[in-house]
Amino acid sequence: MLVSAREWHGWRRNQTIPTFQPRGELTLRLHIANEKFQARYNRKIEQAPKQAIRETTLNIALLGFGLETEVRASENRGRLLKHDFVVLDVIQKTSMNGRWSGLLPSSPLSGKATRLAVVAWATDSPNQRPLQVTGGWLTH
């Protein structure tokens, strides 16, 4: 897991994700309440011709932790495999003004996970290189 572009291993010890001050004028904020989200991406936009303005895409992934799979065949038959960081669902929304709202992604496997997390990242459409990323643990 990366936090502020640096590798972070605190998730292994169930530590709270550290906070940091964003560098520059880029800010992606995600507010979650009652399975709904509101997101806002701000950046300093220099005066530019209208054709230079692009859509921004918000990607939100629901992650499951502590999932288990019972192997029923092959050399691993009878083993119980444990999984973390499983992407259960992903949604994408575009915006011209950097504002989004809607329902969080969901999955029938959510109830089988011991913990859930969400990660969100903004990209300039159609480029998928992340401009900024945020995320955190969800409470059941």
Short characterization:
The chain has 140 residues and is an all-beta fold.
What does this protein structure show overall?
The chain has 140 residues and is mostly beta strands. It has a domain at 34-42 and 53-140: Immunoglobulin-like (Sandwich). It is built from no helices and 11 strands. It has strands at 2-3, 6-7, 27-33, 36-42, 56-65, 67-70, 80-83, 86-95, 99-103, 115-124, 130-138. It has a 4-stranded antiparallel sheet, with no helix packed on it. It has a 3-stranded antiparallel sheet with strand order 3-4-9, with no helix packed on it. Strands 1-2 form a two-stranded antiparallel ribbon. A hairpin with a 2-residue loop joins strand 1 and strand 2.
Give the strand order, joined by hyphens, for the main sheet: 8-5-10-11
Query: What structural class do you assign from the helix and strand content?
Result: mainly beta
Unreliable runs = none
Radius of gyration: 18 Å
**Amount of helix:** under 10%
Give the overall shape, derived from the CA principal axes.
elongated
Order of helices and strands: EEEEEEEEEEE
Head-to-tail CA distance between termini: 22 Å
CATH architecture of the domain at 34-42 and 53-140: Sandwich
Supply the number of helical segments.
0
Q: Please tally the β strands and state the result.
A: 11
CATH C-level category of the domain at 34-42 and 53-140: Mainly Beta
CATH topology of the domain at 34-42 and 53-140: Immunoglobulin-like
Task: Look at the structure and give the mean pLDDT.
Answer: 85
> How much beta, percentage-wise?
over 45%
- Summarize the biggest pleated sheet: 4 strands, antiparallel
